[in-house]
Amino acid sequence: MNFDAIIIGAGQAGPPLAQSLAKHGKKVAIIEKNHLGGTCVNVGCTPTKAYVASARRAYVAANSSALGIEIKGEVVIDLKKIKQRKDALIQESRKGLEKMLTDNKNITLIRGEAMFVDNHTIEVNSKQYSASNYFINVGARPRIPEGFNEVPYLTNESILELEEIPDHLVIVGGGYIGLEFGQMFRRFGSKVTILEKGEQLLKKEDDDISALISEIMNDSDVEVKLKSNCIGAEKYKDYIEVTYNCNATTEKLKASHLLMATGRTPNTDNLGIKNTGVILNPHGYIQVDDTLKTSVDHIWALGDCNGKGAFTHTAYNDFQIVNSHLFLSPKRFLSDRFTCYAAFIDPPFARVGMNKNDILKRGLSAKVSEIPMKDISRAKEMGETTGKLKIFIEADTDTILGASFIGPGADEYIHTIIDQMYAGASYRTVRDAVHIHPTISELIPTMLENATKL
Ligand SMILES: Cc1cc2nc3c(=O)[nH]c(=O)nc-3n(C[C@H](O)[C@H](O)[C@H](O)COP(=O)(O)OP(=O)(O)OC[C@H]3O[C@@H](n4cnc5c(N)ncnc54)[C@H](O)[C@@H]3O)c2cc1C
């Protein structure tokens, strides 16, 4: 069968692209081997943020005596009910996507695993299809280090199927996925230990930010063991023995459950890429140019599988970039994008653009402004004073280079900075703005009055 376009993967970029192609009169096939919506809807953003919300309610219910609120009696965590709520949210999204894709007469939804036969042909369920253009949106999956084959470990997918709260959850990996699950399950009542091989949590962040993240984990009663090398695990009858630090004396932990949060690997290995001219980088990500075109002129790669972002907003922006090159003006480019992301721990951490490490590496001349959460009235009134706001400014141009925020609501008001960066505005625009009192972002203009040399 021939199509104008074939999209492989119905994650975060594929469905909006299918819709746009169809709107422009193109005959489109979209192929999905698993659930519609991909990682974000089924085993990523939606379920984890639903769990984070339950975990916060549990925490607030049990920890409000400092604000004069006592709950007499036990706070009961019902993981089955938490899971049911999450499953309902997922179903709603899947159904919405299914309707959107199947109601459109220009779109054919094909269920199955796609594999390239050559540059112009793919095979799904032993049938061959061809198209003028291909769009690869196959995402990524958990990367599991060697040596864990014999152990019943959990991933971000299987942990979300649990109906009973683990007694002792050991998490390998101190990135944002490990931190979110760690704090959440501690709040659900598990003992939680995070083993991180690096010297700090969130290894890409500045050391002051990582120190604050450690403080948040410590305050949450999550045990963190940094510099944990040669981590291994063995299954015993009713527990998993996790070993680490094999240099001097090997340390041991008895875990009821083991979660591997050790990074992601792109789903490009079973795609028949070797039958095409598409080039992968040494980590298996598809090489793309600034318009997300691969080394083959009619094949594009969007979302996590191109290694240019690992988030839903970057996958969706990939759709916007490709869509602009197909149908719109002005064109959009990958190089126009500022990196931004959040770790949805409590309080959240949010980041845009460069941090101190990036600025020093590039040898840029910069100024920095910062204020601790404990100096902000609204944070004090809320009784949530862990964190800080930190903004970097380029000394020569006065434009904002980046910001790192930790504090209640930081994942929302980081956008005041993101928008200024996209506007290419001087930091003075924000400095001279009047913000509402009492809010945390009220202090952003004030702190910018005191920028000092980095
Ligand atoms: C635990 C966790 C929490 C997360 N939380 C957040 C968050 O809060 N915010 C955020 O922005 N991001 C978050 N992410 C990341 C986000 O989920 C991903 O970046 C996003 O889903 C990537 O979208 P994508 O379209 O590239 O790929 P995916 O969403 O993974 O979709 C790819 C699709 O392709 C399908 N597929 C793969 N190979 C084939 C094939 N050969 N044939 C047919 N179909 C195929 C897959 O089944 C899948 O449905 C989280 C991720 C995890 C794991």
Structural account:
The protein is of the alpha/beta class. The protein has 3 domains: 2-141 and 265-336, FAD/NAD(P)-binding domain (3-Layer(bba) Sandwich); 158-262, 3-Layer(bba) Sandwich (FAD/NAD(P)-binding domain); 347-453, Enolase-like, domain 1 (2-Layer Sandwich). The chain is built from 12 helices and 22 strands. The strands form 5 sheets. Strands 1, 2, 3, 4, 5, 6 and 16 form a 7-stranded mixed β-sheet that branches. A 6-stranded antiparallel β-sheet has the order 17-18-21-20-19-22, sandwiched between helices. Helix 1 packs parallel to helix 7, helix 3 (45-62) packs antiparallel against helix 4 and helix 3 packs across helix 5. The longest helix is centred in the N-terminal third of the chain and has 24 residues, at 79-102. It starts with a strand and ends with a strand. Bound molecules: flavin-adenine dinucleotide.
For the structure shown, list the relevant keywords.
454 residues, alpha/beta, FAD/NAD(P)-binding domain, Enolase-like, domain 1, 3 domains, 7-stranded mixed sheet, 6-stranded antiparallel sheet, 22 strands, binds flavin-adenine dinucleotide
